[in-house]
Amino acid sequence: MKKLGGIVIFFILLSAGILVLHFYKPGPEPPEGKKTAVPSPPSTKTSPPLPPPAPTLPPPLPPPPLKTEAPARIAIIIDDLGFSAESARLVLSLEVPFTVSVLPFYPYSKKSAELARNSGKEVLLHIPMEPINTPDEAQPGKGVLISGSSPEEIGRQVGAELSELPFVSGVSSHMGSLFTTDSEGMRALFQVLHQQGLFFVDNLTTNKTVTKKVAGEVGLKYFQRNVFIDNVLSRDSIIQQLELAEKIARRKGQAIAVGHPHPETVSALKAWIPKAKAAGITFVRVSELFERKL
Ligand SMILES: [Zn+2]
Q1: Rounded mean pLDDT of 255-271?
Q2: Residue 273 Cα, ligand 1 centroid: separation in angstroms?
Q3: Bridge partners of 227?
Q4: CA of 80 to the centre of ligand 1 (A)
Q5: How far is the CA of 251 from the centre of ligand 1 (A)?
Q6: Which of 70, 85, 91, 156 registers the highest number of CB atoms within 10 A of its CB?
Q7: In this predicted structure, what is the pLDDT of residue 51?
């Protein structure tokens, strides 16, 4: 009996154990965070400020433009057209923008000016002006302005020359080592040019020219020649003078180079122009230059 009682107690305890295991439900699990969190001592400091968000980078800039040299512009003027159509055609075979200056009252004055205009070149009236007489100085030619003439006489003369070549953009001086020193005569000339909206190019045949002073008084736009390129008619000399003009243009930004309708001049220009263009020189008409108050 004792043995049986022990077996009964064993089974009762076993059943109780099974029941306990069956109905036991574990309590809710602690939140994940708390499970591993180690309690930290209360901090008296506030948490450090968050670093500012990294700025968004702007899109990459395009590469900077290639460094270019300062602009260097040369205005070529070919003076003394009007003697023949051939010389005009020879000059007009130059394939850059430039300016021609046509003497009035010669058999091919009108024709030369028209040829130049039709080929898109700029045309000036090349007004003969009285030189200081020297034994070997050439005559200034037809329509010359004489120093000491009355303003009316100068006005009439210039008006007649302008009506022969009515489509010119300006006027340049042919010779004039005396007339360009005559303030009264230059004032009369400049007043006509100002009324007609024309500019003046001084070929600087004397350092006593009054152009700057009188043009300032009248308010006339004017330019001054920098280099005569063909006083010596050899190709080497002409190229040297052109290189001088190039040097001036690089230093000052612009230069006026004046030549004449000689085959040597045209040939030297044709040899030099492509090199100058490749070296960054721009060829312009004289009216495109900045006026210089020298
Ligand atoms: Zn001339």
Answers
A1: 98
A2: 22
A3: 257
A4: 5
A5: 27
A6: 91
A7: 58
Confidence of residue 254 (pLDDT cuts 50, 70, 90): very high
Among the listed ranges 21-30, 201-210, 278-287, which one has the minimum average pLDDT value?
21-30
| 274 Cα: distance to centroid of ligand 1 (angstroms) | 26
- Supply the pLDDT for residue 291: 77
Contacts of 186 by beta carbon, 8 Å cutoff, 6+ apart = 179, 180, 210, 211, 214
Superfamily (CATH) of domain 72-288: Glycoside hydrolase/deacetylase (3.20.20.370)
Q: How far is the CA of 8 from the centre of ligand 1 (A)?
A: 147
Q: Is the pTM of this model over 0.85?
A: no
Q: Residue 101: beta bridge partners?
A: 124
Tokens of 2: 């004792």
Residue type, 142: K
Instruction: Give the integer Cα–Cα distance in Å for 167 and 116.
Output: 11
CA dist 94 and 229 (Å) reads 15
Distance 203 CA to ligand 1 centre (A): 8
Candidates 252, 76, 83; CA nearest to 172 is: 76
C-alpha closest to that of 81 among 270, 289, 257, 258: 258
- Mean pLDDT throughout 3-11? 53
Digit-coded pLDDT (tens) for 158-194: 999 999 998 899 999 999 999 999 999 999 999 999 9
The angle formed by the CA atoms of residues 252, 256 and 260, to the nearest 5 degrees, is 155
Q: Report how far ligand 1's centroid is from the alpha carbon of 124 (Å).
A: 11
